[in-house]
Every structure is written in C-alpha cells, then in structure tokens.
Amino acid sequence: MIEDLGPPPAFSIVLPTDSLSFKTETLLLKQVLSNLIGNAIKYHDRPDGRITIMVRSEGNMVEFSIADDGPGISPDYHDKIFGVFQTVEARDQVESTGIGLSIVKKVVESQGGQVWVRSALGQGATFTFTWPI
What we know:
This protein is α+β, with helices and mostly antiparallel strands.
C-alpha cells in the first residue's frame, strides 16, 4: 500500500514493530490510512522526510497515529482541515481537492471512531484516529 503512494526515495517510513490482529472493514481502514500517509508525503516540505506509523490497542478500539516531521499545521486550522474543500496550502501551490480529510473524518466516525490532529508550525503533525475492534 505504501509503495503505491509514491514516497520520494529518500523518505523514511517507519512501520509499527508490534503486530495487532483484528477483524474489520479492511477497505475502509486502508482508505483512511492511505489518505493520511499520502497527505504526510504530499505536504512534506523536504524529500528526506520521516513518517512514523503507530498502532496500539485501547480497550475495544485500536488507535492509529501517523506522525511526520514536516512543516506542521497551525492550531488555527486544526478544526477547519476536516471540513469539505478546506486546505491549508493555496491550491495553486499544491494540487488538492480539499476533501481528503473530510472523507477520513466521515469514514472514521461512521465506524464509531474519532480523528484528531496534534501539530504546530515547524513541528510536524500527528494525525490520530480510533477504530473499533
């Protein structure tokens, strides 16, 4: 799946070391992960970026986090980025429809989970979501 997202050759993607097995809607989960990892690649400001994917069990939920060392997102935009047609970058700078994160939010919430971001300018971003087991 990650190879299909086309990370630059110098990009480092760190996968979870612990495995976790559960039954779920695989297609929907892949859609969410692809979107978040793809965004971390697309909006990174360097060709040698690093993305770390973490997963852990939280009761009857699994918590996934996708953390990058990119340019970060101002807290002013944290709520707005999950809206339809919302982008942080001007559309003439980065090709974007502005619907990816709204789809992530809709899919995650339709499965009974939540999604949020922790980020500050210049400090990368971590998108975390919960997914039912």
